Amino acid sequence: MSAISLRDVWVEYGEQIVLERVNLQIAAGTFLSVVGPSGAGKSTFLRLILGQEGPSRGAILIDGKPLPDEPGPDRGVVFQRYSVFPHLTVLGNVLIAFEFAGSPLLSRLTGAARRAAIAESEKLIEEVGLTQHRDKYPSALSGGMQQRLAIAQAVARKPRALLLDEPFGALDPGTRAQMHQLIRALWRDCGMTVIMVTHDLKEAFNLGTRLIAFDKLRRDPQAPGRFGATVTYDLDLTRDGPVPVLGFLKPLTAQQEPNHLQGELP
């Protein structure tokens, strides 16, 4: 499991501010749902945690240490678009995660190491319900099956954090419900920290133990990029009883902001 901390994080592209003043503590083992309107910086937030890009200002820590400058095996990711290797079978797609780790240059294991990796891969394939499709290529799988495969590939190396970027958005309702059961079981059994971006509020509430919403507190019609989004709602969805307990932070207004944060941004 991994604890993640964001301290006064800003993301700026030239004169455009995407995120501003993001301060967030994510406890290890949390299932964090991230919602908000389009363009509110949700995917940017996910890329920051993944390490695909760094903040313009501020700091991101994992377990108290600075986040590495690039993605690593401690963070798995699943995208909405099925991100599997089309030239590899189901087994090959999962096995390659072990081969990348065991043989970074050749991406090929041999002997006892390969047999052990195959055994681990087959166990994971069974967990995601693809045993009967072990030797098929992604083109022969349905969308739901491909997403199951992508999840198996992402968790193969037991990452401390699993990042999900609208992973179920393209699935039909029945398949989506099955995927919800799968990801919930994997989160519980593997003890990972999960951060999921979604536009589906029902999905966010059903899966998450915590929900945050990104949005802009201030807007300038003459300069849309002048202000960035930040966390406006933070809800505790811990299920201690038959009804979730919702503890939330109301969004700040300009009048409620501390004096040193009011006025023009630097």
What key phrases describe this protein's structure?
6-stranded mixed sheet, Rossmann fold, alpha/beta, 4-stranded antiparallel sheet, 266 residues
Could you give the topology of this structure?
Blueprint: E1 4-13, E2 16-26, E3 31-35, H1 42-50, E4 57-62, E5 65-66, E6 75-79, H2 90-102, H3 111-127, H4 143-155, E7 161-165, H5 173-190, E8 193-197, H6 201-207, E9 210-216, E10 229-236
Parallel strand pairs: 3-8, 3-9, 6-7, 7-8
Antiparallel strand pairs: 1-2, 1-4, 4-5, 9-10
Helix pairs in contact: 2-3, 2-4, 4-5
Give a verbal description of the structure.
This protein is of the alpha/beta class and 266 residues long. The protein has a domain at 4-84 and 162-261: Rossmann fold (3-Layer(aba) Sandwich). 29% of the residues lie in helices and 24% in strands. It contains six helices and ten strands, in the order E-E-E-H-E-E-E-H-H-H-E-H-E-H-E-E. It has a six-stranded mixed sheet with strand order 6-7-8-3-9-10, sandwiched between helices. It has a four-stranded antiparallel sheet with strand order 2-1-4-5, with helices on one face. A hairpin with a 2-residue loop joins strand 1 (4-13) and strand 2 (16-26). The longest helix is centred in the C-terminal third of the chain and has 18 residues, at 173-190. The radius of gyration is 20 Å and the shape is globular.
